[in-house]
Each structure stands twice: as structure tokens, then as C-alpha cells.
Amino acid sequence: MNIDTLISARWVIPVEPEGVVYHRSAIAIQAGTILDIVPLEEAEARYHASATYRLDQHAVIPGLINAHTHAAMTLFRGLADDLPLMDWLNHHIWPAEQRWVTAAFVRDGVQHAIAEMLRGGITCFNDMYFFPDQTAEMANQAGIRAMVGLIVIDFPSAWAKDREEYFTKGAEIYQSFRQHPLIRTALAPHAPYSVSAAALERIRDLAEAFDVPIHMHVHETVQEIQQFLADTGVRPWRHLQRLGLLSPRLQAVHMTQLTEEEIMQAGEYGIHVIHCPDSNLKLASGFCPVPRLAQAGINIALGTDGAASNNSLDMFQAMRTAALLAKAVAQDACAIPAASALRMATLNGARALGLSERIGSLIPGKAADLIAVDLGGIDSQPLYDPISQLVYATSRNKISHAWIAGKLVVQNGALVTLDEAAILARTEAWRQRIGSSG
What we know:
The chain has 16 helices and 16 strands. The mean pLDDT is about 95. The longest helix is centred in the N-terminal third of the chain and has 17 residues, at about 105-120. By secondary structure, the chain is α/β, with parallel strands linked by helices. The protein starts with a strand and ends with a helix. The strands form three sheets. The chain has an eight-stranded mixed β-sheet with strand order 3-2-1-4-13-14-15-16, with helices on one face. A four-stranded parallel β-sheet has the order 5-6-7-8. The chain has a four-stranded parallel β-sheet with strand order 9-10-11-12. Helix 3 (about 105-120) packs across helix 4 (about 130-140) and helix 13 crosses helix 15 (about 385-390). The protein has helices spanning about 40-45, 85-100, 105-120, 130-140, 165-175, 195-210, 220-230, 235-240, 260-270, 275-280, 290-295, 315-330, 340-345, 345-350, 385-390, 420-435; strands at about 1-10, 20-30, 35-40, 50-60, 65-70, 120-130, 145-150, 185-190, 215-220, 250-255, 270-275, 300, 370-375, 400-405, 405-410, 415.
């Protein structure tokens, strides 16, 4: 049978079923979709491919899904480090955004972030930032899968002068990309403390009408909750419950401050938690109770957050930190095993984004979003368990190839759809402008 692509590898790790490893197997791809996964000898006898990749010391896994980031903020990487969240936001990041964020800033920052993510094995990202139209267009040009957040916040910005303009522009972007093969949209209110109740009610209704998720920072810090309690008399979670926003549509980002009742309710409502362990640690925001959330049956995905607060868009690091932190918080070395951490970075992310029918695992019928990780180096040997090696010993620099919907986007570690030198030149120009401003 003639097909487009045949990829063979030492190990194929489908994620679904969890913990399974296929040895010396091949993935047949036709029209951007996984057609078959079979032993190598059988594949070579059955298929004749236009393009063949023989990866004898690699693991092939689903493309990683960065379930929460602010891609354009890559241009603020390292701008204001070693500060608590609200100081970081109020006195550094928000003033910098007011001064520098334009459509051009977002285009260049997003393109840099996409280059970094593709090189690190991320084939899908879930973004929340101003000028989401520019983010969507940059993702389209690069050929990366993306969920673009239609941002809503109570204060004016370079993107929108008031609440009505946020909604109007968001609806236009939703319509523009609703049939796009790689780009999806979500409603993205910043947080309960920065978006009014009236706006949140409108978001709830629009999410139903558009049939899209709601992507929001929730319970990120103790200080946030204390201030909200002082202002309203209730915790933000209760506020969202009263407004009818707790549902399977909700992608609740961070969730470091939770009571037992709130954990149980999260499970009952079927919300998705997006855990950003490195950002939470760096900003001292707190510890997401991942083991308890998992025990409650809650889907937990992983995000890097933005490079301004992480400071890298590295999902291998996120997997490792999530697994290790969960063990320490639970005082249980079995709390989040390696296979679960890998699932959080792949299939769980797809579920949170409502895309698990298309991506997140390697099974026939799903889109061919996959990456090859070179495990042949001295820092990966000896190798007894490839899943453990991926989570605990591998870096994003080991990505050799990446495909999205069957299209090659990274080859032998080099970007295929983007000009890295040109991106770096534009980033340097921004560094000079921002850095010289004092």
C-alpha cells in the first residue's frame, strides 16, 4: 500500500494505553492521520512510503501540549525576576505591557515562542494574551496547532479600549478561525479578580453559544484569595460557582489554594486543572495539590506559563517538576509516576482543550502530531525504561524531529517552517529597545 510517511523507532510510546511501549515499531501516516502502528518488519512489508524515517535510537511519542502560556511574553523573559506575583504584575509586567505591547510586539514574541516550543517538542499550545489575532496568524504560518484565548480583562489595553471591544474583537476572531484545521479558540477571562461578574456571566453564555472552553487563572495565590474575600465576602471559587462557570468547559489554571470541599467540587463539575509547576515555584505562588486532584478524578494538564515567569517554554522540565513536586507535597514517591506525568503533558492536555479525539496519543485515526526524542546519548544510557528516561533524564534538546498533522516541522533538530536567524534578529532589536528604556 502506498502511503505518505513511515516512521520507525526503537520505541513507540502511544500514551494510550498508559505505560505501554512498543519496541521496534513503525507508524504509518496518510493524509496527516495515523493509519497504523505495527512491528517494523510488518510495516516494511505492508507499506511503501513517499518519505521514510529510520530512528533506531529514538522514542517516538505524541507531540507535547503546552496547556497554558502567554507566548508573546517571551520578549519579557528575565525582565523582572525573583518577585512575588502581585508585585511582579503591578509594578513590572503590567507597566511594561502598557508601554511596549503592540501588534508587532505580539507577532515577534509569538514567533520566537513558537520556534522555541517546536524545537522543544511542543506541537500544540494554549495561549492567553492581547492581540490574539496575531497569535493565531503566527501559529498558522508556522504550522503549529494552537488554541487562542480571546482575552477579556476589565482595564483597557492596546488591544481593546473597553469591555465591549474585547468581546467584539473576540467574536470576530472566533468566526475567522472556527473552521481552521489547526487553530481553535477559547474565551479567556484573565482571573476572577480582574474581570467583572457581568463580563463573566456574558462569557459563560458565549462559551455555550460558541461551544468553546473557558481558560482562566483561578486561585493562583493566597494574597489573591484574601483580597477577593475582603472585597466580596466569598472565595473566588465560590464566586465562579454562583456565576455558573464551574463546568467541563473550564480550564482552571494554577489552582494552588484549594480546600478539600473545592477539590471535591472540581471533580463533580468536571473541570480541568492546568498545572504550571515551574511558574508557581518561581513566583512562590504555592503548591497545586496534584495528588489529591488526581484522587478526585480530575483531569490535570501541564503548562509552562509565559517565559516571563518561568523562564522557559520547556515541557520536559514541566513534566519532571510536576512529578517530583507531587511526590514531595504528598510525601509519597508513588504519587505521580513517570507515565502519568507524560500523560499530563499529552493526552490530558488534549482533553483539557477538548481535542482528545484528534491529538494527545498515538492511535490510528488521530492526527499525526508526534515527536522523536533521541535517547542514544551518554546522558540517556543505560536505558531500562524509556518512559522514566523521558521524564526524569531527558531534555528538550534531544528532539530530533516533529510532525504536526503529518507535516514535518522539525528535522534533525532544525526548524523547517521558521527562519531562526531572522527571529533572533528581531528579538535582539526588542531587547535593545526594552533594555535601554531603563
